[in-house]
Amino acid sequence: MTNRISRLFNVQYPIIQGGMIWCSGWELASAVSNAGGLGLIGAGSMYPDVLREHIQKAKKVTNKPFGVNIPLIYPDTEKLIEIIIEEGVKVVFTSAGNPKKWTKYLQDNGIKVAHVIANSKLVAKCEEAGVDAIVAEGFEAGGHNGFEETTTMTLIPKVREFTVLPVIAAGGIATGRQMLSAMVLGADGVQIGSRFVASEEASAHINFKNEVLKTQEGGTDLMFKKLIPVRLIKNEFQQKVKDAENRGATKEELTEILGKARAKLGMFEGDLVEGELEIGQVVSIINEIKPVSHIISDIVLEYKVAKEQMVHVKYEF
Amino acid sequence: MTNRISRLFNVQYPIIQGGMIWCSGWELASAVSNAGGLGLIGAGSMYPDVLREHIQKAKKVTNKPFGVNIPLIYPDTEKLIEIIIEEGVKVVFTSAGNPKKWTKYLQDNGIKVAHVIANSKLVAKCEEAGVDAIVAEGFEAGGHNGFEETTTMTLIPKVREFTVLPVIAAGGIATGRQMLSAMVLGADGVQIGSRFVASEEASAHINFKNEVLKTQEGGTDLMFKKLIPVRLIKNEFQQKVKDAENRGATKEELTEILGKARAKLGMFEGDLVEGELEIGQVVSIINEIKPVSHIISDIVLEYKVAKEQMVHVKYEF
Fold this sequence. Notes:
The structure is a homodimer of 317-residue chains. Chain A has 317 residues and is α/β, with parallel strands linked by helices.
């Protein structure tokens, strides 16, 4: 059985692993693709040569489709895209920028393009750009979130109202039940990030993975609303930012507090005190590091059980 | 057909109309109950004598069960509860306080009690108090939201994990599709607020109802995070608060800016400039004032269609 998303990307399940800086390299992406989902290499934390190496390594261990996520705010975009084309990658997810700039060029080179948005006003831009699918990401997500703070429950129906394009829901999804819930809201597939951070194959530092298991509800906060909002695990660094924001710090002060390479320090080098630890709210229900293949089979099984339960048991009235 | 919530409250549909200050008087509550849901009179904006009048008027126009919502932070709680008992109301929803204080007393007087929480840590308190049901309210809701900012998509599965009690999902729910989505996440019923503000029977000022229709995505913001968080439509008053918060205003300064009777001014007297206009994010998909009976039949129909669609068409893979 297939649906619009699985057909579009030529995968078994409409489950996309979100591209995450410092966490989703070739090992995670290829494991997800081998397990029937769509793996994405997160190019946001990679120099062009590093991205090429990751793509080549992924190709060696999977013959299934995988893709690359590119946040368009980074300076090397053009070089990254040339490498993606040269290496024959067939899927690109773009985010944090205007989808018009690269979509057609990528498609002309045989690549399917999805663009990430966090509010329904950007649907029109995606349609004008001619993207193949839209990722709609709610406030609860761990990524770069929208200023509107729209949650997945309110965002997906609104995006669905505005487009007939395939919609991929992101934010707050880690289980099969949440996946089914997003599909009911109007999504054709889901993008899952946080759940895959706590996988054996994620390139995140083990300290960060363990912190993900420990973090409870209320353990994250959306920070840097004056710059580009991002959801962080609460720690000393995040508290420093919070204090600054509470006393009304300017953009310049916040940029200075952020400094350089905070995300690498936290997520890749494992400094839980001074590092930036990006994660979604759904972290509160993640309590085990597992191989990717188990994570995906868990999600698929729970999805099927939830669906059966809905049909036969609980929801009639 | 019934489920745990419809049986508990003896109603046709597991749809609860949220108690809302200045919006949900006897007319709204009785209309919801007459249409097969559970109507709640919002006592938060009522003096004891006013509540008695509303209960008596509701009893005259419906013989279906209805309830009263009491925010436990208000000073008149004891008097309100005595009136509820004297008037023979059979359902009370409590919020913003400790459920231990009143639950048993209410139950001893033949009343079913539900308590509203915004984070799963409070599940244990609800269980200790012996409530009959838990309302779990996400960040997107219009009410007094939790400090954890947990969204409905992440909150409901977490609450479900911690309890076997009936769970009512609130926040981001205005349609049958959103209702089904919440049921898939583990809820047994839904509480809907904002959608009922834009009803003919709501006691909200017509200016406020029209503003609800106009408000788009990103048109609300969670304010007063240093006091008790509440989601407001963006207007001059809200901007004044935002500016103060951005420059790091203290609790005292914020309390002074809030002043007295802001919510009444905005929602009941229709001052869209200086008034406080409480609403949920889901306001962005509400675009018509309708009679309550139509709102409920719309929700029920869409719920059934969404369920059929999921079973037969779209979601197999």
